[in-house]
């Protein structure tokens, strides 16, 4: 697998991680044989260090440091909210036009952590797909900006407001996920890290990195009849043609 490089300088490199690819080896995913960390090392012939994490099922901007010194600088920037992250997601139902989800989340050790997500709805869709007692199915394309970076924050927050992300099995709607798999052969989670912005710690210049949506995300948007110009980043296919 060849990773699409979105940004590179002498200190940092960012790739567009596909859905389903782990960032690095994990004991909880013994079925995986490819990992973004190893793939990128082989691709560029250099050591790389992941600056943050993306869930296996989430695609999009994934940033790495090219040396341990930079890794020690860049990781705290995520913890200290010096990174502006945006995501796009497809949700079940028609979500409000915009909102802030301020809902604390429990860590694995039982402690509660503050968690805040801002979002706005980019498009609403209704398709001729019967679901339960309804003759149609409704969906929303949203852009989300997490203020904090908690485990599965966006997945848990959108489930909390009863608009779960399509394709999210642990936190989403299993009936909707089954419907999409049976109807469209689609079981990818519709969550994509679309952009990452920050002030470069060495150059002191603003860095804006955007990741085109992956083909499966673009296919879902097309199924929903959402115009491509409403998606804040282009599809991977469109970007390659440019």
Automatic annotation (TrEMBL):
User: What does the UniProt function comment say about this protein?
Assistant: Responsible for synthesis of pseudouridine from uracil-65 in transfer RNAs.
Arranged from A to Z, the UniProt key words for this protein are:
Isomerase, tRNA processing
Q: Which organism is it from?
A: Sphingobacterium corticibacter
Residues in Pseudouridine synthase RsuA/RluA-like domain copies = 11-160
Q: Give the reaction(s) catalysed.
A: uridine(65) in tRNA = pseudouridine(65) in tRNA
| InterPro entries hit by this protein | PsdUridine_synth_cat_dom_sf (IPR020103), PsdUridine_synth_RluA-like_CS (IPR006224), PsdUridine_synth_RsuA/RluA (IPR006145), RluA_PseudoU_synthase (IPR050188)
Q: Lineage of this protein's species?
A: Bacteria, Pseudomonadati, Bacteroidota, Sphingobacteriia, Sphingobacteriales
PANTHER family per UniProt: MITOCHONDRIAL RNA PSEUDOURIDINE SYNTHASE (PTHR21600), TRNA PSEUDOURIDINE SYNTHASE C (PTHR21600:SF56)
> What is one Gene Ontology biological process annotated in the Swiss-Prot or TrEMBL record?
tRNA processing
Indicate yes or no for the key word Cell membrane. Answer: no
Which GO terms fall under molecular function for this chain's record?
RNA binding; tRNA pseudouridine(65) synthase activity
Q: What is its EC number?
A: 5.4.99.26
What's the name of the protein? tRNA pseudouridine synthase C
């Amino acid at each position: 697998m060849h990773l699409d490089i979105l940004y590179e300088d002498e200190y940092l490199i960012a790739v567009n991680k596909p859905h389903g690819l782990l960032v690095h080896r994990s004991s909880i995913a013994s079925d995986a044989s490819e990992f973004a960390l190893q793939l990128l090392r082989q691709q560029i012939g250099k050591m790389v260090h992941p600056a943050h994490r993306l869930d296996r099922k989430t695609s999009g901007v994934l940033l790495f440091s090219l040396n341990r010194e930079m890794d020690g600088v860049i990781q705290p920037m995520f913890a200290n909210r010096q990174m502006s992250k945006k995501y796009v997601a497809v949700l079940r139902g028609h979500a409000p036009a915009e909102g802030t989800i301020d809902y604390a989340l429990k860590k694995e050790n039982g402690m509660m952590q503050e968690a805040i997500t801002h979002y706005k709805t980019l498009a609403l869709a209704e398709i001729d797909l019967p679901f339960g007692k309804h003759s149609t199915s409704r969906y929303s394309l949203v852009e989300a900006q997490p203020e904090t970076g908690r485990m599965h924050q966006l997945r848990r927050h959108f489930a909390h407001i009863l608009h779960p992300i399509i394709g999210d099995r642990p936190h989403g709607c299993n009936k909707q996920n089954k419907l999409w798999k049976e109807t469209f052969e689609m079981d990818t989670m519709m969550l994509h890290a679309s952009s990452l912005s920050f002030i470069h710690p060495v150059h002191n210049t603003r860095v804006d990195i955007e990741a085109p949506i992956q083909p499966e995300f673009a296919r879902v948007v097309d199924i929903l009849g959402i115009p491509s110009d409403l998606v804040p980043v282009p599809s991977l296919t469109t970007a390659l043609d440019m």
